[in-house]
Amino acid sequence: MKSIVLETKALTKTFRGNDEKALDRVSLRIPGGCVYGLLGPNGAGKSTLLKIITGMVQPDEGQVLFKGQPWSRQALAKTGVLIEIPPLYGNLSARENLLVRTTALGLPESRISQVLETVELTDTGKKKAGKFSLGMKQRLGIAAALLSEPELLILDEPTNGLDPFGIQKLRSMLREFASGGMTVLVSSHILGEVEQMADHIGILSGGVLGYQGGMPQKGHLEELFTKVVEKNRKGEWQA
User: Fold this and answer.
1) 183: Cβ–Cβ under 8 A, 6 or more apart, which residues?
2) Are 66 and 6 in contact (CB under 8 A)?
């Protein structure tokens, strides 16, 4: 049995001015060397959960554990994160963007060429990141997250806005990461993509983790997702 790399215990969060809980006692268990798909409709609490895991938001209750130990700066150093829009400098090239980060984090410059090759951005030259396609920006954001050679990679809705070719490339990349021993946590509301890339899934709806476990048999994910969402939804999808 694979060891648990990331675990949350009864995470609860309520934002000021909102009577409903954004997260209600959410307990994840994510094995090492897998792609874990965190599924849920818009407004389910996925981004809030990821921000708590990465220390960007503090929970009202609960705990985050990395390899069995309470979350710390040391754990964050072993984690690569891309939440929402890639934090890029539009007036800098791909290499220059990564140089800013390696300098700030005290990482060797040699990592820049390595991660650019990993995400297939070695031929962008002096082209400014502001001129990149959305798919290229996403890959550069992932490259930045990989600079520290993380054991855990966390991506929030990484396929948003990508064309089918870009989605396929991203899917293959994440599978390769997991095959190499990295643990990948991906949030998404696109069932078909998660079904093709994830080993384990959690379904979040109304701030409640309604299901956690292995991927159901092919063709049954939508049925499971619908059942969980209908049971726990509090306002997702409402305009």
Assistant:
1) 5, 6, 30, 31, 32, 33, 34, 36, 151, 152, 153
2) yes
Half-sphere exposure for 155 (CA within 13 Å, toward CB)? 30
Over residues 203-235, the pLDDT tens digits come to 999 999 999 999 988 878 999 999 999 887 765
Separate counts of helices (H) and strands (E) for the chain? 8, 11
- pLDDT tens sequence across 65-113: 999 999 888 888 899 999 877 889 999 999 999 999 999 989 999 999 9
- What gap in Å lies between CA 128 and CA 118, rounded to an integer? 19
How many whole angstroms from its chain centre is CA 188? Answer: 9
pTM equals 0.89
**Angle between helix 110-118 and helix 134-146 axes, rounded to 10 deg:** 130
Q: Helix, strand, or coil here: 21?
A: coil
Q: How far apart are CA 174 and CA 203, in angstroms?
A: 20
